[in-house]
Amino acid sequence: MHWPPGRLRDHLSGGANRIALSTAVRGTLATVVPLAALPRVGLADIAYPAVLGALATSMVDIGGPYRTRLVAMLVQALGGPCLLLLGVLAEGHWWLAAAVMAAIGVLSGLIRAVGPAGPSLGTNTAVAFLVGLQLATLPEAHAALWAVGYATGGAWTVVIALAFWQLRPYRRLEQEVAAVWEAVALLLRVPAASKDASAVGRLRRERKVGTLHADVVATLERSREVLGDIRADMAGPGTTITQMLVLIDAAAAMAGTAITLCELGASSEATAPLAGACRAVGRVLLAGKGGLPLSELRDRLRSYSETSVGLSHQELTAWSQALSTLDITDEALRVLFGVRRRLPDLVRLPFAHRLPRGVVLTALRAHATPRSAVFRHATRVAVVTGADAALLVYLHLPHGIWLPLTSLTILQPEYGSTVTRALQRTLGTLGGAVIASVLIATVHGTAAYDVALGLLLFATFLVIRRNYGYGITFLTPIVILLISRGSLDPWIDLAERVAYTVSGAILALAAAYLLWPQWERDQLRDRLQRSLQALQRYLDAVLQGLADASVDPAAVAALRRQAELALVNAEAGFQRMRAEPAARTELLGVAFALLVYLRRLCRHTIALSLQGAPLPPEPVNRLRELIAAALGDLGKVVGEGRMSVPWPSLESQLAELVSQLSPGAASEMSRATGLLDRIVSDVMGMLGAAGYHSRYRGPLRASADLHLS
User: Fold this and answer.
1) What is the mean pLDDT of residues 209-216?
2) Which of 57-66, 149-158, 296-305 has the highest mean pLDDT?
3) CB under 8 Å to 447, separation ≥6 — which residues?
4) Mean pLDDT score of the chain, rounded to an integer?
5) How many CB atoms lie within 10 A of CB 703?
């Protein structure tokens, strides 16, 4: 695909891409500097282990409060060399290798309960131990030098991280918020469906809108998580945090306006200026300067309002709401970047955040029971990786570290996630092993070898957080090149590594299937029920607002967020269930239909929440009660698998509502009643998917249990 220079520059300057680029630059600086500098000062023997230590320490820095990140990196930088030496000692004792590897497996599984850095920390500590096992088979390798080099690389990485944190303590938050506004801009750029579009074309557009809406929700949650992390590190009040919170809330409001314009079928000419303004917000956040084209937008809205040809009344209302949101955004940006108080920010951002005393032990103790899914996963990891390590040492397998390493990285708490990770890991290892073998056979021992290693390091840090499969493709040759000291036949080595990787993946899949499996199909009912309940509460609040303007807007916004998160969780669970074996066709079909209608209902409710005109209270309240009863019963059918109960007609209530509108108000309220019609259609669709009949007031069949039992 050809990218024009301007478009490519805009793409790379996006918030999410800026985060990936800055992470790649920091990680590459931490790893490439030892590779280039140590040989020049006569320390070539520790250059490669230093790169390995820097790589592992960089990998455990996955975000979060500064203190937590620092502790994770220090544990890796100091504990890694110790485990490396322990691996050298355990090489002659298969039982010791199995015990240590099993202990690492238990800790890497249980530490998931502490924070998101846990799995990465467990994996990289295991790599250090396995590298020690590999070193014992290489006569030219000196374990003490490798331990010193590993610690040197880890310490250097910590120094680099501290320098980057203090240079721009809010940089990550600014990038995350910019990514939210760019996601909203993409949603605004969805083209309107033409009147002659086929049903397939309309379905594709609806899917695209749903996907982009999910992306907006995901970026909003990431920005809120980073905001919470920064707040945890603050030792006092800060203007920056307040304005960032305003910008996040404004982005959520703009997303609602975008959903409304999508539901209205607004043309690209109408939405493109607003999309450009959203991208302008992102550029200001990334550059720390600039402004928004508010005067141009006001002139355009005035032109639309004064001409008979242009936007509809509903589109004009949405435009006015968007301008109001952008005014708030512009004011927040001016306060945020008007006075750059960086020195006070740095003073208030020490490593002041401390977790409550005993919180880590409490979390681990809570999951130290066979009833905990985290404990069962940790036990499964320990059994498989311990057995792999025992085979590696007992049989003296060349390049055998790929057997336990593959099993450790592939095993996930859910079987569906394990299958996905197995495919990504296997294919990525295949590609990476080919790259490594070609480099060893062609440029090993030359300057191009180190250049290739540096490029692979940059590519790994750039993509590993966003695409695991591509990240493994670049990471695999790095590990191979760092622990290899030449090869008589690189292609035989390639075949061995691939064989061990495939074997480790097979063992991991077998363990996930046989050892205390956690099936998503057993949890999907609960996820769907929670999604139904959250959407019902949000819709109920919106309908109350149409009948009674006293509803708190902040409470409605909180209910919207809960509904969107519950829906995202249900959709993620459905995708994991699809990878499970022997998944029931009935469950797949019913769950898919429910999720389609839930996504539609969420979007239509968001659009309805932005309709300011009140409706007659009595029919709206009756319709609200009927919808709440229908969705409540549907949630019980889904969650409990029981028979459905008769339900009344909703169309008659909507018809009564429309009939009670005065002739003068009908045109102004036509948009609200149209959305109500769509909402009723969505509810009817869900009832039909669950086994209700659209005309007969009762279940379609006596055993309408949704096939979920």
Assistant:
1) 84
2) 149-158
3) none
4) 77
5) 11
DSSP 699: B
Beta bridge partners of 692: 699
CB-based burial label for 237 (10 Å; 0-12, 13-18, 19+): exposed
Residue closest to 101 by CA, chosen among 83, 82, 74? 83
pLDDT of 310: 63
Whether residue 144 contacts residue 214, with contact meaning beta carbons closer than 8 Å, is answered with: no
- Three state DSSP letters for 204-260: HHHHHHHHHHHHHHHHHHHHHHHHHHHHHHCCCCCHHHHHHHHHHHHHHHHHHHHHH
DSSP 11-66: HHTSHHHHHHHHHHHHHHHHHHHHHHHGGGGT-GGGHHHHHHHHHHHHHT--SS-H
Residue in this structure with the two tokens 């695999």, named with its chain if needed:
476
Between CA 610 and CA 175 the distance in angstroms is: 28
d(CA 278, CA 504): 47
How many other CB atoms sit within 10 Å of the CB of residue 7?
10
Residue 435's alpha-carbon distances to 290, 391, 474, 480, 559, in angstroms, are: 44, 27, 9, 10, 50
Q: What is the CA radius of gyration of the chain?
A: 29
Higher pLDDT, 569 or 204: 569
Residue type, 666: A
Q: Treating both helix axes as pointing N-terminal to C-terminal, what angle do 585-609 and 239-264 enclose, rounded to 10 degrees? A: 110
What's the pLDDT tens digit per position in 356-414? 555 566 666 766 777 777 788 888 888 999 999 998 888 888 778 888 888 888 888 88
Superfamily of domain 170-348: Phosphate transport system protein phou homolog 2; domain 2 (1.20.58.220)
520-689 domain in CATH 1.20.58?
Answer: yes
**DSSP states along 108-176:** HHHGGGT-THHHHHHHHHHHHHHHHHHHTT-TT--HHHHHHHHHHHHHHHHHHHHHHHHH-TTHHHHHH
pLDDT at position 82 is 92
Instruction: Locate CATH 1.20.58.220 in the chain.
Output: 170-348
| Per-residue confidence (pLDDT) for residue 134, from 0 to 100 | 81
What's the CA gap between 410 and 418, in Å, rounded? 6
Contacts of 487 (CB under 8 A, 6+ apart): 440, 493
Look at residues 66, 97, 60, 98 and name the one whose alpha carbon lies nearest to residue 79. 60
pLDDT at site 81: 92
Predicted confidence (pLDDT) at residue 536 exceeds the cutoff of 80: yes
Q: How far apart are CA 680 and CA 694, in angstroms?
A: 12
Q: Using CA atoms, how far apart are residues 393 and 404, in angstroms rounded to an integer?
A: 11
3-class DSSP assignment, residue 692: strand
Tokens 């030359």: give the residue. Answer: 446
Could you tell me if 61 and 160 are in contact, meaning their C-beta atoms sit under 8 angstroms apart?
no
Residue 345, pLDDT > 60, answer no
Retrieve residue 488's tokens.
Answer: 């008589």
pLDDT digits (tens, 9 = 90+) for 188-201: 888 766 555 666 67
Contact residues for 123 (Cβ-Cβ < 8 A; gap 6+): 59, 108, 408, 409
Is the pLDDT score of 531 beyond 70? yes
Most confident of 106-110, 206-210, 379-383, 645-649: 379-383
Element at 547 (helix H, strand E): helix 524-547
Is pLDDT at 515 greater than 70 in this prediction?
A: yes
Short-list 246, 245, 278, CA closest to 261: 278
Where does residue 195 rank: exposed (0-12), middle (13-18), buried (19+ CB within 10 A)?
exposed
